[in-house]
Write a structure and sequence with these properties.
The chain contains nine helices and eight strands. The strands form two sheets. It has a five-stranded parallel sheet with strand order 2-3-1-4-8, with helices on both faces. Strands 6-5-7 form a three-stranded antiparallel sheet. It is globular and about 45 Å long. The chain has 215 residues and is of the alpha/beta class. Helix 1 crosses helix 9 and helix 2 packs across helix 3. The protein starts with a strand and ends with a helix. It is 49% helix and 15% strand. It binds adenosine monophosphate (AMP).
Length: 215
C-alpha cells in the first residue's frame, strides 16, 4: 500500500502518518523531515535547503525529487510508503508518477486532509516535538503527561520548528494555495483522491483514513 497525505501545513499529515506507520507497518517518507535531518547533519543539500525552509518557501523540484528517488531505491520501501509532504507541486506529481512506474510501484490512494486556515494557525502556533524521537505535541491539544518530558522516549528535548513562526507560516500557507492545492484537482481527475475531515479530532481523522484505505 502506497499513500499520499495531502493537505496544508498543520493539517495533521505528520500525526496521521505516524499512526499509519504503527498500524500498517508503512514507511513514512516525509521530505520535510529528510530535509531538516540533512540540514542538521550539515550536508550540502541540507545547508542549501535550510534558508529556504526557514523562510517557508519550497525547495526546488529537482532537489526534492532527487532525494525521493534515492529513497525509493532502498529495499525497505517495498512494504509500502506514506508520502508526507510530497508531492507539493504539479512538477513533483508528474515526477512521482514516472518514478512509480520506473520502480514498479503503484499508488493506492491520495488522502486529502481538509482543514480551515483558522484551525491550522491555532495548531501550528502551539505545536512542538521531541528532538530525540520526533513525537509531536501541542500546547492545548496534546500535552505530555509530565511537562517537558516525552511520553514516548522519556527525554527532555522538546523543540519547536524554526519555520513554525507566524511569518514563515504565512509564506507556507500561501505556497500551499499557489503550488500544492492544484494537486487536489489533479488527483481528483485521476480518480485517486479521498477527502477526509482534517478539522475533526485526531482519533476521528484516523478512523476516516482507515475507512478509506481498508475500503
Ligand atoms: P514539512 O515538514 O512537510 O512542513 O516541510 C517543511 C519545509 O520543507 C517546507 O516548508 C519546504 O521548505 C520544505 N519541503 C518539504 N517537502 C517539500 C517538497 N515536497 N517540495 C518542496 N519543498 C519541500
Amino acid at each position: 500500500m502506497n499513500l499520499i497525505l495531502l493537505g496544508p501545513p498543520g493539517a495533521g499529515k505528520g500525526t496521521q502518518a505516524r499512526f499509519l506507520v504503527e498500524r500498517f507497518g508503512l514507511l513514512q517518507l516525509s521530505t520535510g523531515d529528510m530535509l531538516r535531518s540533512a540540514a542538521a547533519a550539515g550536508t550540502e543539500i541540507g545547508l542549501k535547503a535550510k534558508e529556504t525552509i526557514d523562510r517557508g518557501d519550497l525547495v526546488t523540484d529537482d532537489l526534492v525529487v532527487g532525494i525521493v528517488s534515492d529513497r525509493l531505491d532502498e529495499p525497505d520501501v517495498k512494504g509500502g510508503i506514506i508520502f508526507d509532504g510530497f508531492p507539493r507541486t504539479l512538477g513533483q506529481a508528474d515526477a512521482l508518477d514516472e518514478m512509480l512506474v520506473e520502480k514498479g510501484m503503484e499508488l493506492t490512494a491520495v488522502v486529502e486532509l481538509r482543514c480551515d486556515d483558522e484551525i491550522i494557525i491555532e495548531r501550528i502556533a502551539g505545536r512542538y516535538s521531541c528532538g530525540n524521537c520526533g513525537e509531536g505535541y501541542h500546547r492545548s491539544f496534546k500535552k505530555p503527561e509530565k511537562e517537558g518530558v516525552c511520553d514516548k522516549c522519556g527525554k527532555s528535548e522538546m523543540q519547536q520548528r524554526d519555520d513554525d513562526n507566524v511569518e514563515a507560516f504565512r509564506t507556507r500557507l500561501l505556497n500551499y494555495y499557489k503550488d500544492t492545492a492544484p494537486l487536489i484537482g489533479y488527483y481528483h481527475a485521476k480518480r485517486s483522491l479521498s477527502p477526509v475531515d482534517g478539522t475533526a479530532d485526531i482519533d476521528e481523522v484516523t478512523k476516516q483514513i482507515n475507512a478509506v484505505i481498508t475500503a
